[in-house]
């Protein structure tokens, strides 16, 4: 790869680029809008409910939300623009593709070059630009679709500088993802965010991924009956004690209407700031909490954006 001209680090929001240092208190993985055939009847498609949720998040001190909803899953980018303007919350949108089970066959049967072009268009020339590429692994490994989409994402990253966010199925396969993206495809690990680490509380795997240089997103408090809540403190404490507090991110990952605080059963994005943040501050200290909610996401989602040519 030829060295790129250095540009200021900025975060690409739906209202335009902002200096990384202006992102503020961030929900690093969530969804205001989402639909999937895997979640029939639970679509996040109510713009008013999204507005209520985002304003309540703002009232609790939230300043930014990163929506990981990729192409073909109801991103509602025009609504994201309106909500960002109305609430003053920085909203970052995604391009990319999820696992093939979330799509009809015609939506996933594209070649790598065409996918990369679509991702680059979303990141650089779309009326509402994405600020990251979302892709997904499989359970303890990578299938052909995952390899295709990650290869396209890597090509788009090299052309634009965009961060890449990865859904890890039940928190597994982190090193397989990093071996492909950062080894074979030469994406710098500091531009990779691994999601759902809390769903597989394997402390050794967490340390290996952090040691490799990726960001680790613990993002499951909105899921009913998941073990992410009671394991979260131990996972974060172990990583912080091992010296990886600068790699940690937190998000709500609200994926269904029932999981919203506004009109649902909760806890939604609000839980991060109303309940989780003060508990974590008491147990792990304010310095780490400032890093997790402010400093780390400001680095994880920043880029030296390029035109994509």
Automatic annotation (TrEMBL):
Keywords: Hydrolase, Metal-binding. GO terms for molecular function: hydrolase activity; zinc ion binding. Zn(2+) 1 binds at residues 29, 31, 134, 253. It holds the Pfam family PTE. PANTHER family: PHOSPHOTRIESTERASE-RELATED, PHOSPHOTRIESTERASE-RELATED PROTEIN. This is Phosphotriesterase-related protein. Binds 2 divalent metal cations per subunit. It comes from the Bacteria.
